[in-house]
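batch_manifest entry 22 of 60
target: Glucose-6-phosphate isomerase
source organism: Roseateles oligotrophus
requested by: lab member K.T.
priority: normal
notes from requester: please return tokens only, no post-processing; we will run our own comparison against the previous entry in this batch. if the run fails, retry once and flag.
--- input ---
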Amino acid sequence: MSSSPVASRCDQSPAWGLLQAHFQSAGRRFDLRQAFAADAGRYAAWTLTAPEVFADLSKNRIDADTMALLLQLARDCGLEGKRDAMLAGEPINLTEGRAVLHSALRAPAGKGFLFSDEVQASLSSMLAFAESVRDTSKSGITDVVHIGIGGSDLGPAMVVRALQAYTQHGLKLHFVSNVDGHDLAPVLRDLKPATTLFVIASKTFTTQETLANALAAKAWFVAAGGSDIARHFVATSSNTAAAGAFGITTTFGFWDWVGGRYSLWSVIGLPIAIAIGAENFRALLAGAHAMDQHFARTPLERNLPVQLGLLDIWYRNFHGFSSRSVAPYHQGLGRLPAYLQQLEMESNGKGVDLEGQTLPYATSPVVWGEAGTNGQHAYFQMLHQGTDVIPVEFIAVKTPNHGEHVQGEMKALLLDQHRKLLANCLAQSQALMQGKSFEEALQESAPTASKELDAATVARHRSFPGNRPSTTLVLDRLTPSSLGALIALYEQRVFVSGALWGINSFDQWGVELGKALCGQLLPRLSSGDTTGLDGSTAGLLKHLLA
Ligand code: F6P
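--- output ---
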């Protein structure tokens, strides 16, 4: 344990300078191939088990010395104290004066967790409503249109897609988020008011996109002969008054200590509960809670969110890697990269510390990705041979669940496809690490090479630098519980890097300026008035109106 006072920022920790020296002396030259050749126990040493998630960190540019210093950094920065403060409900979101208690939403009943009574009451009423909708013979509902954006969309949309295998036949979920009417219009084309339920999801109930879509949906409902708006429109919001003013009589409320991007565990998860049912929703919460417990109790050395968060600091602040790619090898996790973009970039895309001082180091990387294997045929070229090193996070699922309708020969074929999927996942992390030397490339025949290029030139095009880092996370199956654990792992990992950077991971002032300017520009799109605008904005506005 360090005896020095807690550093509010990582660069104020004694370990920061030690890490800089370590990077210069060893870290920047670290070679994964040599590390594996030198240590037969590397895989065993760098694999970790957390609830529902197995992690292989061995293909990262780290060794015991690096991790020891990163752990010292974490301790110097009082990571455990900061974690405990969050979990204890201290108002760590300073700029908004709020606690950050999404973990309380997934805690089991009756265990003395904060706000347990309120949370359980809210959960029970939301789940009871979800079950009543799922009872389609009584509810008459065949389609649920969920209208929300950002944290009020990405989590529910991602989870419902991921847990498709758990959804009910005859009840379709649709997600509309964009203010662009091309999102809403096609969804409504084939729906009927009598069999449609709209869920208007907005924590603030002031979000332009959501209110615009809700208004248009209401207009469609009435024009298409719908009656009983009170039965066909419900809201999930912490602003029940605004939802009421909109004409919604049933609102499932929640609290300001639930951040938008951390809200899928709250009533914002209503479409998830409608899609997968109460029991599965509770399993999603239980998986996340198990990960919370791991985060709260496991020593930092074996604590997966902590290890991943420290790796993020190592790559971002010492190696200078500016992005991280996420490659889930499961089609159901196709929206996970988009979800993680908000989670990580809205949380940690900050430029000042808690005291408002400009940071002298980088924070959130760009997070991006696509489900494998599709990404391989799009941007993996750059990951393998491009000039930037981009750590990749592979997510593999051991056992598939293609659905009960998949039987006989098709079942065997899809199982074979699953083996192909896993082989691709392993091959990509192997290729990134291994690379291909100039000599190896030279030995290969190059049938497509132009006669004008000599063999050495062609070999240079065909060689790979290798030593490109990756992490592989493995789930046994994609279930509500394992998905809950995976999402909570990411949430807590984002907390770890944010805590060390000394930033407020729980506000998002960076989205406000654009909103305000949009409000000022909107009337000009009707009037055409460009007075006082900069040249580009004025020119574009005229061009759009011409
Ligand atoms: O984009 C900013 C933001 O405030 C997100 O943080 C939030 O998830 C989203 O807008 C939607 O907000 P609301 O749920 O209040 O409509």
